[in-house]
Target: Beta-glucuronidase
Amino acid sequence: MIHIEGRQSSSLNGLWNVIIDPFDAGSGDWAAYYKDRKPLKNSDFVESAFEGGPQFHVPGDFNSQLLELNYYESSIWYKRTFNVQKTEDRRFFLHFAAVNYKAEVYLNGSKIGEHEGGFTPFQFEVTDLLKGGENSLIVKVNNQRMKDGIPGLGFDWFNYGGITRDVDLIETPKTYIKDYFIQLAQHDENIIDGYVSLDGPSKEQDIEINIPELHVRFKSRTDKEGKAILKFPFRKKTLWTPENPKLYEVRVSAETDHIKEQIGFRTIKVDGTNILLNGKSIFLKGINIHEEVPQRRSRAYSESDYQMLLNWAKDLGCNYVRLVHYPHHEKMVKIAEKMGLMVWEELPIYQGIDFANTGMKEKMNLMLKEMIARDKNRAATIIWSLSNETYSSPSRDSSLTALYYLTKSLDNTRLVTSAFNNMRFEGNKAYIEDKLNSLMDIMAINQYLGWYKPWPETDKEVEWISKFNKPLIFSEFGGEAVFGNNIDPNRASSWSEDYLADIYMRQFKMFKNIPFLRGATPWLLVDFRSPGRAHPIYQKGWNRKGLLSDRGEKKKAWHIVADQFINNFN
Ligand code: GCB
Model:
């Protein structure tokens, strides 16, 4: 099911009762928290209860809701009750926008399913399990890092656990519009190419796509699988651009159901070393963003949180954002779309992923499908990124190759990339090496010249050499500085603002000599929490590579990037 905001639903957000379960006792037969047992006879006792314990906000991470859970990595059980009026002709679904990392869901004492993956939505049909009147919903959430998890055991961010995004009870007719893909054809911007699919007992129905503002009506009929291919002429529209992020109301109707959504239309392609938006060459002026509100030390979870992060990106002069290192909330993407920001979305296939593990392929495929299913109608989303900083091995190469082709088979209207950091330096020459660049539509390179990799000792500018005839985006570059710190501008180890400003000045100078550079995304918008950053004076558990401090103060480097984006890259 897609476009949750367009459905008839009741929100299950709010305060939930929780049991903290550091030893994972609640899954065993004795404790069995999912049974939510109560003492009935005088001789009964139960050594747990949801009532009387802490209550946590949903959506929201659990690490930030109780001081003692700051670094917690284990299980928390959540419970809430809700009432429902059942009717014979309706179906009901429990929809979770994301639970980080593993979820087990119990309704009225029965397990209804589980899900692995912290950043994509999932749902369970509960039509036959709901009771009229009060229902009890229990969710076990576990955020332990796992060798075969995605991400794996190590990563450079604070991976807040919990029911981090919205929970809804969604109601549909017996046969409902489960999915639709309505975008311009890759080969012809005057055609809409896509599909509608229905789920339920009466799969063969007349359907209609209606775009009232343009007087467009397209009629078709779904087949016995419930699917109708959409292919129809679509002219005289205003294309979505960062300057004019035009969206149209699109109504999708079947005989038994209808839904409407704001959808934009644009094309995105690569031509040699150029990136073309609606046929015109563009330079992607971006910023990396984690889904965190640093001032509150928690996961971002509300529209105002997303708006704050994206307003900063706009102030910086960006026309695009790289949402790292996992799919962010779909509302974040929708707000970016309304603001005219193009979006790079990414899977959490990060650094130490255990590609050779037998279960990995299935998990990667599922995450990819969930991400694309959710956002495939977003005009803003122009890039699917498969991974970040992985190194060639037979299992890595075959996994990312398979994932590339799976992405294209699900959606051929966007560009696909992976961020690599394995270039080869020789003197002042930097060679772009990773052979998977020959497959990807765009080369994306994370390079930390001036920080992890000192500038070469030569009076010549660094020269970038690519054997691939493709556009390049520097998906990461930058360094660390503490806001207001100007102790020694010549030493990296003083975390000084001037040292960082110098890195940015030299980076932008270098960019002028790279004709195939078509985008730049500084690392990153705002300082972020990362438990591995242990310098006791300058870091204190924070990665200080933000252009803004954790309180939103502008470092000197911010002004350099803003000046370049606003005045030099138009
Ligand atoms: C990287 C990673 C990013 C880190 C960053 C850093 O290359 O992609 O996740 O946070 O470097 O600060 O080291």
Q: What stands out?
A: The first helix runs from residue 303 to 315. The mean pLDDT is 97. The CA atoms of residues 239 and 255 lie 30 Å apart.
